[in-house]
Design a protein that fits this description.
single chain; alpha/beta; 5-stranded antiparallel β-sheet
Length: about 700
């Protein structure tokens, strides 16, 4: 077998090498774990690793852990052979790290070889090949490792004190004691300097006695600069809420071992969050002579944890908002549909009702509001195509009441077409234009300038005004919307894109605080950015930067019926599947008024059964309406798959309150002939069926 021996004691290493080579093995020796890893990661292949624990640069515990974390090395069995780490806890930590065996020094050569040969025989027979770490919890492993270092260092320091006392009483043994002290000091220095954690030694008054290279690297200070100074004066520690630390409550510390978390300042005044384990060091009489603290820099880990928690919280909020919007759209669909039927009922008697028309318009505004919420929390898929930017701006201006009289549009010749979702982009532009028009109070003007730029802002613009232009917009369209209104005060400007933030009074014709936040979300979704410059009493300039190439083109969303469309009379049979009873009844009534024979079921399994029965009874359905999600059973996607297996020519329309769902904009990819987003009117429903039947 090819064996790697890691031991910083050359005599021990050569002795072990000679014993193994006499038995026909090929042996390589290194003085520490770092050099052992370098050899293992080279082209050489080894069958077994025998390692001491206490070594400079990288000790045996670290060496074993790295070997078990590297895919190409973890298969190699690992034996610890130590004369300093001999306690049961040391063996438990070694096996936890993935070691196959733990041998304590000293052993007679014959007994030592017998133990090694026994392990190698188990390897050959397949009884053991390698061990994997029993615990992947890095924090717990670090804790055990730190405890072993602290306990070992404390014991060695106690032994040093005992040796000093013995020196006074046993002058005859002076030379022997001096040799022991030197060895013990070297041992303690090895631990202190090689430890991959922060180590700080303070006197009983808190003045710095020394610290290790790891703390020098983190803090930026050298020991010579700060020795004798109080540690609080140097590191300026701040209190830290331990209960919030990484979101868990730590367990009870081992007896005599304290712990806390502090924020200290480095030499360049940067805050670092340090978790400390500490213990008093005492002399032979029990008097405290110093405090040994071992710390771990957890700044980056804490930041990652907070980022993860924030993303999880945002995901929960988005899911909650999406669910509420879906349920609200179902209720709104019933209200909107009933209003449409009521208008039809009373028109022959009293004509059009202004009250019903007002309620109808309020429902449409509520529908737009839920669409805004869905875009901000989940985002809609873009239905992109090449679009004339000047025409988009004109449509946005026309859609804003009163904008035509105050807006002036300029566009340079030869502007490239923009790849964008025209409907959503018009919505975004109209929201911004509406704010600019309102800011003028009908007494000023709004100027809209469209031009192209390269990445340096050239083409006569004199450089970039915006400070948030994205790096990928090397060629972009710049839409500047400037007004001569009252401007925006400095303390309000940072909040103008926040959802539901508005300086206007709430009401039917006042701000709801969603216009600018919706515009921001739409432009961001296109890969663009917005920059606003404003001064109170002077006016505001909104610069919109859009990449010419834009996002990938998407499918075109099905359109709604235009107001005032005359509804045709149809014929045929339609099956409706929806989990809302009120919505099922409403659809049946609306279809019946247009000449459709309609039936309704509550979930997908019932829809499949009823569709099958109708086919067998020679009264098949000409089309089906399937709700995307269903709380009672099978939803629209799975139902469509089942129906397609029964009837490949089935004609189906998918309905849902989740307007952002990919099925809505990619309905044909799922076998559907059309898509309807809730709430839909009777006109939307009839026109969709007209295209399908």
């Amino acid at each position: 077998m090819r064996i790697l021996v890691a031991d910083d004691n050359r005599v021990n290493a050569e002795l072990l090498k000679g014993l193994l080579e006499k038995r026909g093995h090929t042996v390589s020796c290194v003085e520490n774990g770092k050099k052992g890893l370098e050899i293992l990661l080279s082209a050489e292949d080894f069958d077994l690793i025998i390692s001491d624990i206490l070594m400079p640069e990288m000790d045996g515990f670290q060496f074993c852990r790295y070997c078990k974390l590297i895919d190409t090395l973890r298969h190699i069995p690992f034996i610890f052979y130590s004369g300093t780490y001999t306690e049961k806890q040391d063996e438990e930590l070694a096996l936890r790290l993935g070691a196959s065996h733990f041998i304590r020094k000293p052993l007679a050569p014959a007994e030592l070889m017998g133990r090694v040969e026994s392990v190698m025989e188990d390897i050959r027979s397949g009884a053991i090949s390698f061990r994997v770490p029993e615990d992947t919890n890095e924090y717990e492993t670090y804790r055990l490792y730190s405890e072993r270092l602290v306990n070992k260092l404390e014991k060695k320091m106690e032994e040093l004190d005992a040796s000093v006392v013995a020196l006074e009483d046993e002058i005859v043994e002076r030379k022997k004691t001096e040799g022991n002290l030197r060895l013990e000091k070297e041992f303690a220095e090895k631990i202190f300097n090689a430890a991959p954690v922060l180590m700080l030694v303070l006197d009983p008054d808190g003045r710095i006695l020394r610290f290790n290279p790891c703390l020098e690297q983190i803090s930026g200070y050298t020991v010579s600069e700060v020795v004798g100074k109080h540690w609080k004066t140097i590191f300026k520690p701040e209190t830290f809420n331990t209960r919030e630390y990484l979101g868990y409550t730590k367990g009870k510390s081992p007896e005599g071992l304290g712990e806390n978390v502090t924020v200290f300042r480095t030499r360049d005044n940067k805050p670092r969050i340090i978790e400390w384990l500490y213990r008093d060091l005492t002399d032979g009489q029990g008097s405290v002579t110093a405090l040994l603290a071992m710390g771990m820099d957890v700044t980056d880990r804490l930041a990652q944890h907070r980022e993860l928690m924030n993303s999880r919280n945002a995901e929960v909020v988005n899911q909650l908002c999406g669910g509420l919007v879906h349920d609200f759209n179902n209720l709104l669909a019933v209200i909107l549909g009933r209003i449409s039927l009521a208008k039809d009922d009373i028109r022959p008697l009293v004509g059009d009702s202004i009250h019903l028309e007002s309620a109808h318009q309020a429902c449409l505004r509520a529908r737009d509001l839920t669409a805004c919420l869905m875009r901000m929390t989940h985002g809609n898929m873009l239905s992109c195509r090449t679009t004339d930017i000047k025409q988009l701006v004109k449509k946005a201006v026309v859609s804003v009441p009163g904008a035509g009289g105050v807006c002036e549009i300029e566009a340079e010749d030869g502007m490239p077409e923009l790849l964008a979702d025209p409907k959503q982009l018009v919505d975004a532009l109209s929201n911004i234009v509406a704010n600019s028009v309102e800011a003028t109070g009908g007494k000023g003007s709004v100027r809209i300038i469209c031009r192209t730029e390269n990445e340096t802002g050239e083409n006569g613009t004199g450089g970039d005004v915006g400070n948030k232009i994205k790096e990928n917009m090397k060629k972009r369209v710049r839409i500047s919307i400037s007004d001569t209104g009252s401007g925006i005060s400095e303390h309000i400007l940072p909040r103008i894109f926040d959802p539901y933030f508005s300086t206007k009074e709430r009401g039917a014709k006042k701000g709801m605080g969603l216009g600018l936040s919706t515009a921001y979300a739409i432009i961001e979704k296109h890969g663009g950015s917005i920059d606003v410059v404003s001064n109170s009493g002077v006016g505001t300039v909104v610069d919109i930067f859009m990449p010419v190439d834009g996002p990938e083109p998407g499918p075109v969303e099905s359109s709604r019926a235009a107001p005032g469309d005359e509804l045709p009379q149809l014929s045929g049979r339609v099956l409706v599947m929806d989990d809302e009873l009120a919505l099922r009844d409403l659809c049946v009534m609306m279809l019946a008024r247009s000449g459709i024979d309609a039936e309704a079921v509550s979930e997908g399994e019932a829809a499949v059964n009823r569709y099958t029965e109708a086919m067998k009874g020679k009264t098949p359905f000409d089309a089906v309406l399937l709700d995307l999600t269903n709380r009672h059973g099978m939803g629209g996607i799975e139902t469509m798959k089942r129906l397609s297996a029964i009837d490949p020519d089935v004609r189906a329309i998918i309905t849902t309150g989740f307007s952002n769902d990919p099925v809505v904009t990619q309905f044909s990819a799922h076998g559907f002939a059309a898509a309807l987003t809730k709430p839909f009117s009777r006109a939307d429903l009839i026109h969709a069926l007209e295209r399908v039947l």
